[in-house]
Amino acid sequence: MPHKPIYVEIDIHDNIDAVWTYTQQPDLHEQWDVRFSSITYNEKSLGETVQTFTYSTKVMPGIEVSGWGESKGTHEKESGEKTSALHFGTDQLISPIAEGKGYWQYIPSEGRTTFLTQYDYDVRFGGAGKLFDRLFRPLIGWGTALSFDVLKRWIESGERPGTQYRRFFVFYTICFLFAFVWLYQGLVPKVLTQHPLEVSMLTQLSSLSEGQASTAVIWVGIAEMIFAGCWLIPKLQKYLLKLQVIIFPLLTISAVIAAPFTATAPFNVITLNVTLWVLSIIGLLLTKELPSAKSCRRKRVKAA
């Protein structure tokens, strides 16, 4: 099945000159665009119209992809609408992108500018590369949309991209941490080992026999593993944080009532749950003004 070009569009409440500046100056562009770590323009010869540049992207510590690009010039209509064409690529085999083309378009209207991009690229490694691109293309499309929202917030509110990205990645680190905690707590002490303390606390808090409690612990563990999976669903994360702010104090009190000695043990239930409770509050606070790829339109609206 042929792939679709990547399309991202967003409305920015500022004039076209401001949006043009933030997107065309490399020292500004590299700050908001998560796809690039650095962008360097090459010096143009006298009379040359094509602006060439080099870029780099840090994939992970010690691994970096570098490439080349050409800004093919700008077309401006009488309405003030601007379009900037782009040709880019890299020779590094670590990059799934071999070469691509696209454009940025700036459409002014009263009080705002519609900023959009559409681009496509060729992959390397034949069929294997096309198969991998089914995973990579949605990821880079998401990264483009997230970057556009960061740009919008920078222009409209003045909050620098570095601050936005730190808040974004801290928030999702907290969410992945909670996913790990609930998965581990459900899988290891409940499903795999059925730790005696888990069974004992359940018998203390209910009228279940030891055998019934042992079976119930497994089901509780399965429920916790499902709860861990819910942390990977962005739409649920804010509600899960609110839920944890309520339930962690209740879980702590229940554990101390069922097994008082756990309150004085090393790395005990009180210190653990209070830590997770505070992290839940921090995560909830971070949800305010969190940049999101959802702020962008990913399909072109057809004219009526």
Automatic annotation (TrEMBL):
InterPro entries: DoxX-like, START-like_dom_sf
Keywords: Membrane, Transmembrane, Transmembrane helix
Transmembrane segments: 169-187, 216-233, 245-263, 269-287
Protein name per its UniProtKB record: DoxX-like family protein
